[in-house]
Amino acid sequence: MTDKTASDILRIAVAQLNPTVGDVAGNLAKAREARADAARQGADLVLFTELFLAGYPPEDLVLKPAFLKACERAAQDFAGDTADGGPGVIIGTPLKRKSGTHNSIIVADGGKILAERYKLDLPNYGEFDEKRVFQAGPEMQGPVNFRGVRLGIPICEDIWGDVGICETLAESGAEILLVPNGSPYYRGKVDVRHQIVIRQVIECGLPIIYANQLGGQDELIFDGASFAIGADKTLAFQMSQFEETVNVTTWKRSRPAAGAQNGNNPEVWVCSEGPMSKIPEKEEADYRACMLGLRDYVNKNGFKNVVLGLSGGIDSAICAALAVDALGEERLRAVMMPYRYTSKDSLKDAEDCARALGCRYDIVPIFEPVEGFLHALTQLFEGTKEGITEENLQSRARGTILMAISNKFGSMVVTTGNKSEMSVGYATLYGDMNGGFNPIKDLYKMQVYALSRWRNTHVPPGALGPSGEVIPNNIIDKAPSAELRENQTDQDSLPPYPVLDDILECLVENEMGVDEIVARGHDRATVTRVEHLLYIAEYKRRQAAPGVKITKKNFGRDRRYPITNRFRDGG
Questions:
Q1: Which residues form the CN hydrolase domain (predicted)?
Q2: 393 is in an annotated binding site
């Protein structure tokens, strides 16, 4: 056996971290801490994620010259750190050059920046609008020689499209592809990423390391789950999802099997050591995404605590559970605001939920403020029938009380409407829609039920809440109701939620036509009514709080329909 040279083994640390957009100094400090950790683990190189020093996505901050200068100074300072003989680094940052402002990475070692690489394929769909603020790299750039190993470094979208960047890098002599990413979560996204990378491995014949950002940024959740696919198209390592971590992986140079495709290289790199974490499925993944999104939104925006209206219904109960899991029981104040239509069951269920979670629980009756509003409007409303207007006064009184508590104590209001309700406008502007953030905004009603049942039998990793039944079964089992009039249930106004959710998913996520949806077995009149409600509620959704993105198409970033819109699908 021949002696191994220094470049026959490469220990690559993947830094799956949670940066904060705009906190350049904080992100640099986090990068330095991760590099020191990687050095202790014996790493040769640390791979960070896309635009790490800026935080991703920085959006229009990139248009601010002072921000760009701060990012470049941080990149230069970090490059200088590598003079200590420790690991080299690949880290993302925006860079302004003669060819434009680029989504870039720098490669640094020995105290110097060895190379810059610019993103070529700028995404401009769904939640992405990078063409608004960045210019694509002016030309294809070849591999970077790092300690005798030729590294190809495409950036995120560069491997998602069909532009042949991975194949070109292989033909240019790259031996391994290292890909920094800012890939947001939606249900099933890990499998999608694996398939994208496998396709590129098949085309280029090289192993690909996929480093993904972690953390919540407004509506987006970056779930980590970094991984690598070997040249043999198998999973080489898999990092955890929804957890901040730095993992060192060991790569060894070896001869490929006879006839194996490997670009222009006679040898192939194989991962001999790395994590193999289990990826959570379905309800666990969605719950942890909602929890992470709420935690980061509250903490990154500097709120000390949160408040929500606890009605005894399923939506406010799961939001209370998420708040306690994300922030701790001491940071949630739950407020029951009963009126004459609030049932004894709801009073008991709300109290039982708060007790199970261990959070503060207050009762603020709204009889007097509602009656005050009605009295003030008596003359103006004379001769009209009571109806939705009077019902909405109850909701708006509750919204005003929650905002008063927010103003007085600095607590962010957590709003609790689900996607089914937000889709068809079953929510009151300046009432139950009041709030700073909604952790279940992109969950349909039946998904809320599924996550509630899951949480009652599981405690997710990193949760600060208790084990056991935290959402009383009576809340899950009873018919949902806004309790704004006597004996009211949601199904008085809406189709059954299993029917409504399926129609909405067809309309929103899949953009299906009325005829297609009817062919699935739905009543045509119901489908056209739901489509109409979806369109006319657009103005409400424009004024709704941001919330965690869980599905492929959320309201806001992904689905941007006009408010003024007369189109209806006649079938």
A1: 10-253
A2: no
| 125 labelled binding-site residue | yes
DSSP secondary structure string for all residues of 334-396: EEE---TT--HHHHHHHHHHHHHHT-EEEE---HHHHHHHHHHTTTTTTT---SHHHHHHHHH
d(CA 561, CA 175): 45
Q: Encode pLDDT of 443-502 as tens digits.
A: 999 999 999 999 999 999 999 999 999 999 999 988 776 656 666 666 667 889 999 999
For the segment 309-319, what is each residue's pLDDT rounded down to a tens digit? 999 999 999 99
Task: Tell me how far apart the alpha carbons of residues 141 and 492 are, in angstroms, rounded to a whole number.
Answer: 62
Residue 553 appears among annotated catalytic residues: no
Q: Is 4 annotated as a binding residue?
A: no
Q: 30, 71, 116, 119: which one is catalytic?
A: 119
* Residue 435 annotated as part of some ligand binding site: no
> Measured between alpha carbons, how far is 247 from 153 in angstroms, rounded to an integer?
19
pLDDT at residue 4, rounded to an integer: 41
Q: What is the pTM of this model?
A: 0.92
Strand extents, DSSP E, 255-324: 268-273, 306-309
353 is catalytic: no
Both structure tokens of 167: 């194949």
Asked which of 45-54, 197-206, 382-391 is least confident by mean pLDDT, the reply is 382-391
DSSP-based three-state secondary structure for 151: strand
357 marked among binding-site residues:
no
271 is catalytic: no
Measured over the CA atoms of residue 39, residue 42, residue 46 and residue 52, the dihedral's sign is: negative
Q: Judge contact between 218 and 187, C-beta under 8 A.
A: no
